[in-house]
Amino acid sequence: MRFTIPLPMFAYPIYLWRRSPGKKGSHFNPYSDLFAPHERKAVLISTLCWTSMVLLLLYSSFLFGFLPVLKIYGIPYLIFVAWLDMVTYLHHHGYEQKLPWYRGKEWSYLRGGLTTIDRDYGIINNIHHDIGTHVIHHLFPQIPHYHLVEATRAAKPVLGKYYREPKKSGAFPWHLFGYLARSLGEDHYVSDTGEVVFYQSDPEIFTFSKPNNAKTKSN
């Protein structure tokens, strides 16, 4: 699905509706296991607002025509989804060395958080509310976005070698497109067996770069 256009454009709404494969819950259901009982009212309000927006778009399509709505709302939405998918993907893939994925007894909350990747988005960092500080976000998701940079700065001496310093960006993060192309060309699947696994390449899938299946030492 990742390599079949336009299916990746629908990954985000599908994720919100059904989450990723193997996981249960919906971001639109107030009674989903994703949410605590005291959050149900907020989820219900969010779902009602989302439904109202969908109805407004349908009404606008009948009133003004499908193409104007597509140009004014649809195309910017697809650009947003593409950027969001890329940002999310690069927080978990595309590091200079292949990172392990853990299963079973080898997995822990700490190990999972430490195999995520921080990214620098240049001037877009503020627009992202500093989500580029992704490691600390995974380890302590309760930290609000306006303290992520400060928390990352404080955590780095503690994490030591387990923290991977992101490459500094210019005004616009052009370098991330290189990481994305390389990862899409190499990181296609992981083995169904084993509790510490690394991404491998499938030669039948198109590649952007020469595959490099060298494996790094696991944490």
UniProtKB/TrEMBL annotation:
Q: Which InterPro entries match?
A: FA_desaturase_dom, Fatty_acid_desaturase
What superkingdom does the record give?
Eukaryota
Q: Does the keyword Nucleotidyltransferase apply?
A: no
Q: Where is the signal peptide?
A: none
Q: Name one Pfam family in it.
A: FA_desaturase
Q: Could you name the Gene Ontology cellular component terms for this entry?
A: membrane
Q: Which UniProt keywords apply?
A: Lipid metabolism, Membrane, Oxidoreductase, Transmembrane, Transmembrane helix
A single Gene Ontology MF term assigned here is: oxidoreductase activity
Q: Where does the record place a coiled coil?
A: none
- Residue ranges constituting the Fatty acid desaturase domain according to the UniProt record: 39-163
* GO process terms (BP): lipid metabolic process
TM segments?
Answer: 72-90
User: Where is the protein localized?
Assistant: Membrane
Specify whether Repeat is a keyword of the entry.
Answer: no
Query: According to its UniProt record, which protein family does this protein belong to?
Result: Belongs to the fatty acid desaturase type 1 family.
Indicate what this protein is called per its UniProt record. Fatty acid desaturase domain-containing protein
Which organism is this protein's natural source? Linum tenue
